[in-house]
Amino acid sequence: MATQSKTEGKNRVQRVPQENVRNFCIVAHIDHGKSTLADRLLEVCGNVEEAQEQMLDSMDLERERGITIKSSAVRLYHEAEDGELYQLNLIDTPGHVDFSYEVSRSLQACEGAVVLVDISQGVEAQTVANVYLALDAELEIIPVINKIDLPHIDAEMALEEIEGAFGFDEEEIILTSGKTGAGVDELLEAIVQRIPPPDEDAEAPLRAMIFDSEFHVHQGVIAYVRVFEGTIRPGDEIMMMSSGRRFEVSRTGVFAPAMTDVDELRSGDVGYITAGIKGVTESRVGDTITWAERPAEEPLPGYREAQPMVFCGLYPTDNVDFEALKDALDKLSLNDAALTYERETSAALGFGFRCGFLGLLHMEIVQERLEREYDLDLVATAPSVVYRIMLTDGEVLEVDNPAQFPGRELIEMIEEPVVEATIMCPQKYVGQVMMVSEERRGAYLKQEYVWGDRIALHYRLPLAEIIVDYFDALKSATRGYATLDYDIAGYSAEDLVKVEILINGDPVDALAIICHKDFAESRGRSIARKLKGSIPRQLFEVRIQASIGSRIVASTRVAPLRRNVTEKCYGGDVTRKRKLLERQKEGKRRMKAVGNVEVPQEAFMSILRLDDDE
Amino acid sequence: MTPLSVYVHLPFCMRKCHYCDFNSRPAPDAERRAYVDALRAEIECRAGILRAREVRTIFFGGGTPTIYEANELGEVLASLTAASAPRPPSVPERERAARLPDFEITCEANPETVDLPKLRMLREAGFNRLSIGAQSFDDEELRMLGRGHSADQAAEAMGAAREAGFDNVSLDLIYALPGQSVEAWRSTLRQALVLGPDHLSAYGLEIAAGTPLFTRYEAGEIAEVEDSAHLEMRAATGESCAEADLHRYEISNYARPGHECRHNITYWRNEPYLGLGAGAWSYLDGVRSANLREPREYVAAIEERFEALEYEEQLGPDEALAETLMMGLRMTDGLSLSQLTSRYGAERVTELLDKAHPLAEIGLLDLSDARMRLTAEGEMLHSEVCVRLV
Question: pTM for the complete prediction?
Answer without folding.
Answer: 0.69
